[in-house]
Amino acid sequence: MSELSIQQILSSRYRTSQVADRHTVTLMEGLGLSTKANVARLCIGRSLAMGPLLEEGIDAKGLEIPAASLFTQEDIGVWVGMVVTHAQMNNASPIETMDSFRAAVRMHWHRGAQLMMDDWRANDEDFDRFLETLINRRAELPTSAKTPKGNDEEATGEQEKPKDVSAELVKALADIGVTADVKGFTHGPRVTRYRVFLSDVNHLPKLQRGMDRLSLVLGLQGAIPTVTLGDEARLVFLDIPRLKATWETVPFAKLREWTSAKASDPDELHVFPGVDILGAPFSLNLASSLSPHLLVGGATGQGKSVCLHALILSLMMQHTPASMRVALIDPKRVEFSVYEGNEYLWGDDVALGIGPARERLLDLVSEMDSRYETFREIGVTNIIEARAKGVKLPFIVAFIEELADLVIQDRDLETQIVRLAQLARAAGIHLVLATQRPDAKTFSGLVRSNIPARIALKVQKSSESSIILDETGAESLLGEGDMLVKITGDPVRVHGVYVRRREIESFLS
After folding, report:
1. Facing residues of 430 across strands?
2. Which residues contact 275 (CB under 8 A, 6 or more apart)?
3. CA atoms within 13 Å, Cβ hemisphere of 6
């Protein structure tokens, strides 16, 4: 690059072939983007992911685009590096002059436009299907180089500091037809919240419908922004997911900190799944009438089991075995074995496998009936009143890992689960049901209607989100403990506490 400079590149103008220019216009209209530059970046990026460019004659008859539209001061170094490196890796002629750089951009744009047009047509020119193709293709690429594991630490990439993308956001909003200004921002653990002032309130519906397109323009790699009404007139909160390299992990130590700060009350069952998008601790009370039972669902590997451990440990940190016990039911024989022999266990052991799981559920129903008989004898109606009269009864929180395995193999157990969900709260028995296979066959309407509180981690399909939350949204989460928690009203986005097995073992020892 002896004759190249960033200033030269930024002051130059670029064009592609006449054919690629037509493809760019078609894609721009189909994707709802307002400038050719947005499509051009997608096309160039698509080509850079391919092998060597073909030595073919490509005209330069497309309309010119100034570099200021195609690149920015912040990202120009990355684009130049990728174009130059692509040529080096594929044994092409070195890119050392402005003419060679413009030619490389033209050829990448030309090839990428043809490939993107093929994708567009293969998806029947349907925006949602086309976007899914882009997301799936991006998901197949590595996000970062692997870091060697130390003796005692998990392998993690180097954390980057989150950046302010206010200027890019204003430009991206304009690209989808929304005129707005950014009035400030707050970085959370994984998401940055921008305070966005709308010049025209009539643009709000367009903004709400344009989240997929905004993701595409901002290059969020399939992560979807969310918009909510702000705290001032014409103000909205726009929550923009960040790249994984900027995420902040919520450590196990935070769980200890939150539970220690919570005033101890033996008549409450607070659990802490994680923090909200701005980093504040989030909790729910299983002893409350709003969330007496909880459904936790999510696809394999998205953090469901870690979430369950955070809930269990939350309770153990705030209670003694005299005030609270956990009944752990694990048909898969995998997740709860670490708690074997613990003094908090109701039933003295973990119910592993289908047979013991069935017996433990029936024991819980018998315990519920026995408690109600005791309440009748002493003239009370619930566990709080019984405790006030000196009856020593612990809360029982029953965690059932992979409810689908139980219900599929023994349909009669659904009746017992529904009965517990309908009647057990006043007796001090609460359910936390978990599954990685949320579907209507496993979770009937009768089960869901009696489990008011929900936690949805990332799922594969919007229909699975609807099973867990009664609405879509969980299919667009970031994964790795990113979740939506619904008690009443709109779901709250929460980033889960990261609990390692060795930390569980250390706490229990």
Report:
1. 397
2. 188, 189, 250, 254, 281, 282, 494, 495, 497
3. 10
At position 170, the amino acid (one-letter code) is: V
Of residues 301 and 242, more confidently modeled: 242
Q: Alpha-carbon distance 303 to 329, whole Å?
A: 18
Both tokens of 221, joined, read 């790699």
3-state secondary structure at position 320 = coil
Whether the Cβ atoms of residue 485 and residue 473 lie closer than 8 Å to each other: no
Helix, strand, coil: what percent of the chain each, to 5? Answer: 45, 15, 40
pLDDT digits (tens, 9 = 90+) for 308-317: 999 999 999 9
The CA-CA-CA angle for residues 109, 115, 120, to 5°, reads: 115
In this structure, are residues 259 and 285 in contact, taking their beta carbons and an 8 Å threshold? Answer: no
One DSSP character per residue, 148-197 reads PP-SSS---PPPPPP---HHHHHHHHHHTT--EEEEEEEE-SSEEEEEEE
* 352-365: pLDDT as tens digits: 888 898 999 999 99
Structure tokens of 373? 């008989």
How far the first Cα of the chain sits from its last, in Å, is 61
- DSSP-assigned states of every residue in 257-314: HHHHHSPP-TT--EEEEEEETTS-EEEEETTSTT-SSEEEE--TTSSHHHHHHHHHHH
Q: What is the DSSP letter of 433?
A: E
Hey, which residues does 365 pair with through a beta bridge?
A: none
